[in-house]
Design brief:
Length: 400
């Protein structure tokens, strides 16, 4: 027989109590979690809550339209120096970029021994032929003197005269060949055509060059030509003698100049007008072949309001902004006058001091409630205080 543990009946009544207590605990935790979840629900629609935005006050600022173009600074004279008549190996190149040269200075030499020998050969042939022609001419004179006495026939006189003339023509032909050969010999010595600076050196000694190839480039920078192509709609604004300001990007220098030349017709492909300005550069501080910004003031200063570029959406000549009045955002469309360095210039219809939204515009609708945080940006110097005009926003920059 199995033995029975007298303590087992006493433990069985505790199991139901434990189960009931655990179930009540689970229910209590569920009730608490449900209450916590319901307490975080927002019963107010988000559209009815004020939206947080950042705004600034529109400032009054005089505006003067200005056209900005991108141009190129070219040397007044530029020459690519190389052989024009002969093909030969480069013997020496005596200059480097940046060297100053004088007119007639030797820049490079070519190995033209063959051309020089040919020139000497033609010279000697011409000399021999000239001696022969001189002897024939004297013989022709003697024969002619005998013809008057009837000692020689007229036919013989004519033959001697024709032979002398033929030799004379051959001498002239050889002299012409000698002149051409001398030009080829001279072409083997490359000289500077004017005073200037060496802008580029394209070959070194030992290279083989042909007619038309460049060995050295020489530029004269004492006077520079600033050239640009402007839209055809600005033709009347770029009349000769119109004052402009030229900014040299290579050095940061600001130069005062005037439009010197304006093309009488537009380019057939780009429909742009070519203009040029002459700028003195006697100290040669400005490099050629670099970029320049050309600023041209147009019209008279006009009253306007200055706002950040982030405060508006621009489409053609209209700017869409949100004005804030009594914590309500109102959508408004104003006329755009111009743009400069992240600032927009609009007409004065909004009124000076109007709050315009700069951050949070994308989430706004007309007549939305807002809470405003002002973020004033220090006013930039205006055209009257700096002597510079805001850039007209619709001006087109055309690069040459």
């Amino acid at each position: 027989m199995n033995s029975v543990n007298p303590e087992e009946p006493k433990k069985r009544p505790m199991v139901p109590l434990i189960l009931v207590g655990g179930g009540l605990l689970v229910v209590l935790v569920g009730v608490l979690l449900l209450h916590h979840a319901l307490s975080g629900v927002n019963d107010i629609a988000l559209a009815q809550e004020p939206k947080g935005v950042t705004a600034v006050h529109a400032r009054a600022a005089p505006y003067k339209p200005l056209r900005r173009y991108v141009g190129t600074i070219d040397a007044w004279i530029s020459a690519n120096i190389g052989p024009q008549l002969v093909s030969a190996y480069v013997e020496t190149v005596l200059v480097r970029p940046g060297d100053s040269v004088k007119r007639g200075q030797v820049l490079a030499t070519l190995d033209c021994r063959n051309t020089s020998a040919l020139s000497n050969q033609i010279r000697e042939q011409a000399r021999a032929m000239a001696s022969t022609q001189k002897a024939l001419a004297k013989e022709s004179e003697r024969v002619g003197s005998l013809a008057s006495g009837g000692f020689v026939s007229p036919n013989e006189v004519e033959q001697k005269s024709a032979e002398s003339s033929s030799k004379e023509a051959q001498v002239l032909s050889l002299q012409a060949q000698l002149s051409g050969s001398n030009l080829q010999v001279a072409d083997c010595i490359l000289r500077a055509p004017f005073d200037g600076d060496v802008g580029d050196r394209t070959v070194d000694p030992g290279a083989f060059v042909k007619p038309g190839m460049t060995v050295v480039t020489v530029v004269d920078r004492s006077t520079l030509r600033v050239t640009a192509n402007v839209p055809e709609s600005d033709f009347a604004m770029v009349a000769p003698r119109s004052p402009v300001t030229v900014k040299v990007l290579a050095t940061g220098a600001l130069l005062g100049a005037a439009i010197t030349r304006r093309a009488p017709q537009a380019d057939e492909t780009t429909r742009t007008i070519h203009i040029e300005m002459d700028v003195q550069n006697r100290d040669r501080a400005i490099p050629s072949g670099t970029t320049a910004e050309i600023n041209l003031e147009v019209g008279n200063p006009a009253p306007s309001l200055e706002i950040p570029l982030t405060a508006a959406s621009v489409r053609e000549d209209k700017a869409t902004v949100f004005e804030v009045k009594d914590n309500v955002a109102h959508k408004a469309v104003v006329k755009l006058l111009g743009e400069r360095e992240g600032r927009l210039y609009v007409d004065t219809s909004m009124g000076e001091g109007t709050l315009v939204v700069t951050e949070g515009r994308g989430a706004l609708l007309d007549s939305d409630q807002v809470t405003v945080k002002t973020d004033e940006v220090p006013a930039k110097e205006t055209a009257l205080s700096t002597g510079k005009s805001p850039v007209q926003g619709r001006a087109t920059a055309v690069e040459r």
